[in-house]
Amino acid sequence: MKTNFRHFIAAAILGITLLSCSGGFPPEFPAADFTLKSPLTGSEVTLSSLSGKPVIIYWFTSW
Question: pTM above the 0.70 mark?
Answer without folding.
Answer: no
